[in-house]
Amino acid sequence: MRDILRRARLRLLKMHFESGVGHIGGNLSALDMLLTLHHRIMGRDDQFILSKGHAAGALYITLWSLGRLTEEQLATFHKDHTKLGGHPVPRGIPDIPFAIGSLGHGLGLAAGLALGKRLRGQPGRVFCLLSDGEWNEGSNWESLTFIAHRNLREVVLLVDLNGLQGFGSTAEVANLGSLGNKLKEFGLEVREVNGHDTDAIEQALKAPLADRPVALVARTIKGRGVSFMENKMEWHYLPMTAEQYQMAIEEVSRL
Amino acid sequence: MRAIFSRTLLARARESDFVFLTGDLGFMALEPLRDAARERFINAGIAEQNMVSVAAGLARAGLRPWVYSIAPFLYARAFEQIRNDVCMHDLPVFLVGNGGGYAYGVMGPTHHAIEDYGVLLGLPNLTVCVPAFAADVPQAVSRLTAAARPAYLRLGRDETPGDFVVPAYGPWRRILSGRGAAVLVVGPMAGGILAAAQTLPESQQPALWVVSELPIVAAEIPAAFAADIGRSGHLIVVEEHVAQGSAGASLAHALLCAGTTPRRFTHRFARGYPSGHYGSQLYHRQECGLDPASILKLLTNTQ
Which of A91, A189, B213, B256 could form a disulfide with B171 if both were Cys (CB 3.0 to 4.6 A apart)? Predict the structure, then answer.
């Protein structure tokens, strides 16, 4: 797993550097969770919805690490005539069922997929990865109510709690206090983990299913793995210079 | 129209891909459907954004959801979900807006839908269906179901004249073959206008057409309609919708592109709330010159 994490992180940095693309901070915070989920947890009947669409790069790299996206496809990232947009595009690649860029959509879509499975008697779960800033969106609370009320245990929430959002920290912009407590209050079983501890993530997701929907609330570090990016607002947006890229890969190579 | 819509879906409630979502509306109307569809009838609560996303997920899972609410609560509140989750993915989600135009009358403008199809027709893959008569609803439902693509069904109050035999549903229909102006109506107002037009001497009666599916596609405009415009030289479009994004605007565009412009074009459309006062659907239509008496006046003044 450690090797997968390192290779994926290096490939993610390379892809973002070569395409001159920012949004790297929120990709690095979500990457360990995405890799653990896809390599260790998800089975054939399971589906994944990336609600924080700005972590598209981390998802593409995860699919690449599974052999579902090729080097050639990754080379098109963020360029003209690509299917790998800065946020997942509609009907782009089969493993990504929905285009998501605007926040507050993924949880409702996951609920619909899960309800569809239930109504059709099909097996499998629907994992949905959300950001923390995304909980500013009222639609998420609609979806949460729907999921809890219908006890849609087929939905598993993963929240990337990196503490930074578009123009400030989550505490500064619209402080939610404890998101975990709020999710509990809505009726979910909350499992809190370090979002970079892959064993802990795996254990939390493999623990026996509760009698209610589960939310994995993962404390993460925006820009994780590259010390000059960690917990820095600007790495939500900025692309790397050549020098910064060199520093980043040297550090990640030592992981 | 809601009653016949409910009965139409009732007949489909046991189909394997049927599922119905409502935004907590349907009291005294949808109970039989709820009882028949059981777990396939989902009251999603007063949460339209989530309801539309859930519908998109259900469609992706192989179902064909119907999504019901008072029209603006659906197309206006959940516009981004309709745009991103449904239309961009060309999913078979059938949105049903009750109360097209000013149908909710004195309930107030928050409940009116006078810019619904203009707003929605900018989206990819979506068809708008506006039945003119209650008898259209079962056939319209069949067509939308068979097409299995995003759709918006605008329901209004039925105004079919008592003695009128409604011709089979189709996107374009001529319901009166007069020699006067060519009149195109969108939606249930066609009933009242038909009844009014039939009181005219035969020589003054219009060629009265109804269009029930939008957008207007130039290639699908019937030759007989173009001939009716050509003969009288006067085209009148009547719709309970604002001018922006209207059927009249898109028809004018199509005709201009085709080089078949009428000598005269009159567009009667929803003008919002010109007096700043509120009333019944008829009151608002009268303020906008959309009521049968106003249309009759227009027809007799243009002979």
Answer: B213
pLDDT number for residue B23? 98
* Chain A residues whose beta carbon lies within 8 Å of the beta carbon of residue B50: 107-108, 111, 139, 142-143, 145-146
Does A104 reach chain B within 8 Å, measured CB to CB? Answer: yes
For chain B, which residues make up each domain, given as ranges? Answer: 2-155, 172-301
Q: Which residues contact B202 (CB under 8 A, 6 or more apart)?
A: B178, B179
B172-301 matches B2-155 in CATH topology: yes
What is the rounded average pLDDT of the residues A250-254? Answer: 93
Is A90's Cβ below 8 Å from some Cβ in B? Answer: yes
In tens, the pLDDT along A25-68 reads 999 999 999 999 999 999 999 999 999 999 999 999 999 999 99
Token match 């239309």: residue? B87
Domain range for residue A98? 2-253
Whether the CB-CB separation of B261 and B255 falls below 8 Å is answered with yes
pLDDT over 80 at B302, yes or no? no
pLDDT digits (tens, 9 = 90+) for A86-96: 999 998 899 99
CATH number at residue A111: 3.40.50.970
Given this model, what pLDDT does residue A238 score?
87
Q: How many CB pairs under 8 A join A and B?
A: 102
Q: What are phi and psi of B236, to 5 degrees?
A: -120, 125
The whole-number average pLDDT for the span A223-249 is 92
Say if residue A220's pLDDT is above 90.
Answer: yes
A139 in reach of chain B (CB within 8 A): yes
Q: How far is A22 from chain B (nearest CA, A)?
A: 23
Specify whether the CB–CB gap between A6 and A224 falls below 8 A. no
User: Is residue B62 less than 8 Å (CB to CB) from chain A?
Assistant: yes
- Domain B172-301, CATH among 3.40.50.920, 2.40.10.10, 3.40.640.10, 3.30.200.20: 3.40.50.920
pLDDT of residue A209: 73
Q: Does the CB of B61 have a partner CB in chain A at under 8 Å? A: yes
Query: Domain B2-155, what fold?
Result: Rossmann fold (3.40.50)
Q: Is B43 an interface residue toward A (CB < 8 Å)?
A: no
User: In chain A, which residues have their Cβ closer than 8 Å to the Cβ of B80?
Assistant: 102, 105
**CB–CB of B60 and A117 under 8 A?**
no
Tell me the C-alpha distance between A107 and A126, whole Å.
10
Tell if the CB–CB gap between B52 and A108 is shorter than 8 Å. Answer: yes
Say whether residue B42 is in contact with chain A using an 8 A CB cutoff: yes
Q: How many domains does chain A have?
A: 1
Pick the residue from chain A with its C-alpha nearest to B63. A116
